[in-house]
Design a protein that fits this description.
Layout lengths: L5 H4 L16 H4 L6 H10 L1 H41 L5 H23 L1 H24 L9 H13 L10
Helix pairs in contact: 4-5, 4-6, 6-7
Length: 172
């Protein structure tokens, strides 16, 4: 498979990904039969919430990157048209295009700021990564997941993250 150049590797797509990659692919889970019961609990309690936040984060990240590319391209067009206006001072069409593109760019920039796409992306990504950390903490049986009430502790921790709070931590 041919990889895109690094500059384009994270270039925004027209459509954001609609599915999340699993924390641990099913093929890898099969290699750990002693953890099968833990994987079932995680797939029931944590994975759907993780996937929701992961997809939300990917969509908002893609939207934010598209907005930034639009701003960069618009700025480059304004710069080029401004230079063309300096070369052709008797022509009025470059100035009209600079004005139209400038207004469109200012409007899209204001929309980008007001839509808070970056803030939503960062909040969703933080929740998804906190859930990913819970996933591995549960498998490792550490902290709150070391005792007999592991499933209850997992459920509480997932609910806390969904509420935007830090899960309770027990020494361990």
């Amino acid at each position: 498979m041919v990889r895109p150049p690094p500059l384009l590797a994270r270039f925004p797509a027209l459509r954001a990904p609609a599915a999340s990659a699993p924390v641990i692919p099913a093929g890898r889970k099969a290699g750990y039969p002693a953890l099968a019961a833990d994987f079932e609990v995680l797939d029931r309690e944590l994975t759907p919430v993780f996937e929701r936040y992961d997809v939300e984060a990917m969509r908002d990240q893609n939207r934010y990157r598209r907005q930034q590319v639009l701003i960069l391209l618009g700025s480059a067009m304004i710069t080029g048209l401004g230079g063309l206006q300096a070369v052709l001072p008797e022509q009025h069409w470059p100035a009209v295009l600079v004005t139209v593109i400038g207004v469109a760019l200012a409007t899209s920039t204001r929309y980008a700021r007001e839509s808070e796409t970056l803030d939503r992306y960062l909040a969703a990504r933080a929740r998804a990564e906190r859930l990913r950390a819970l996933y591995f903490g549960y498998l490792a049986r550490t902290g709150a997941f070391a005792g007999e009430d592991r499933e209850l502790a997992l459920g509480r921790a997932v609910l806390a993250i969904e509420a935007g709070e830090e899960p309770e931590r027990e020494p361990g």
